[in-house]
TrEMBL record:
This is Glucose 1-dehydrogenase. Belongs to the short-chain dehydrogenases/reductases (SDR) family. Its EC number is 1.1.1.47. It comes from Halovenus carboxidivorans. It is an enzyme of class 1 (oxidoreductase).
Length: 253
């Protein structure tokens, strides 16, 4: 198993990509610290892992709460150890031009998508550097690379995640800690459903998105989880500061 004897803390783990990553990591032998702001669904993921013979614990965590993040990571490090951090929690926003986007909406997206990732790294890095090993995977987006129209706040936040992760990799590499970004294309999760719900005809909009991809379909959360797994594991031991695009070939068309 690829993550035997390792402990992984995953944010936004109650749904979509975070849920699929939690289940995948558990299959590979990791002890999974399932965290999410959603304390109804989160514990169900931990239960599902435990019932399948794995080892998981749920903790409620809002990634925008820096003090709580520091405190939780310190407790997890002491009680379970910590080898892998996946900063996956993220949010979208209704499609709108820059000049139509409320300041409060802009700030909300920055708080979750940028400060949430910062807070996770701020909390984990002292422990990982001290132990001289660890792997951080931050979840960016195709919007880390492309500027998406009417998704400027999201694009700003995900671009920041990619470059922040490079800085973390440069800082922490000498202490044996790696940091990488996964940049998914449109992936079939509740977040995508929310995005499509704003379209006049969500099913037609979904079909149009599929047509943009050479593979003619959207990503599945499990396909993103597999790439997060690769970057988190020792198989990627010489990979750091990288943005791994997982997009069904979108960039080629
Ligand atoms: P999702 O909506 O299915 O899951 C997101 C999870 O994050 C939810 O469980 C939610 O409760 C949690 N969350 C939201 N705010 C939080 C907070 N403040 N603190 C802690 N947890 C919080 O979304 P999905 O699609 O699985 O997204 C996961 C990541 O992947 C996000 O960072 C998203 O931006 C990114 N992404 C998603 C794509 C897609 O097409 N679905 C494409 C590219 C990137």
């Amino acid at each position: 198993m690829r993550l035997e004897d390792e402990t992984a803390l995953i944010t936004g783990a109650a749904s979509g990509i975070g849920k699929a990553t939690s289940l995948r990591f558990a299959e590979e032998g990791a002890e999974v610290i399932v965290t999410d702001i959603n304390s109804d669904e989160g514990p169900k993921i931990a239960d599902e892992i435990d019932e399948a013979g794995g080892d998981a614990t749920f903790y409620e965590l809002d990634v925008t709460d820096a003090d709580r993040f520091d405190e939780l990571v310190a407790d997890v490090y002491d009680e379970h150890g910590l080898d892998i951090l996946v900063n996956n929690a993220g949010t979208g926003h209704p499609s709108a031009y820059v000049e139509e986007t409320d300041t409060s909406m802009r700030d909300f997206v920055m708080d979750v998508n940028i400060k949430g990732v910062w807070n996770g790294c701020h909390a984990a890095l002292p422990h990982l550097k001290e132990q001289g090993s660890g792997s951080i995977v931050n979840v960016g987006s195709l919007a880390s690379i492309f500027g998406l129209p009417k998704q400027a706040a999201y694009s700003l936040s995900k671009g920041a995640v990619l470059n922040f992760t490079r800085a973390v990799a440069a800082e922490a590499g000498p202490k044996g800690v790696r940091a990488n970004t996964v940049c998914p294309g449109f992936t079939d999760t509740p977040l995508l459903d929310q995005f499509l719900a704003a379209a006049d005809d969500p099913e037609e909009a979904r079909q149009k998105l599929r047509e943009d991809y050479p593979l003619k379909r959207l990503g599945e959360p499990e396909e993103i989880a597999n790439c997060i797994l690769f970057l988190a594991s020792d198989e990627a031991s010489w990979v750091t500061g990288h943005g791994l695009v997982v997009d069904g070939g979108y960039r080629t068309s």
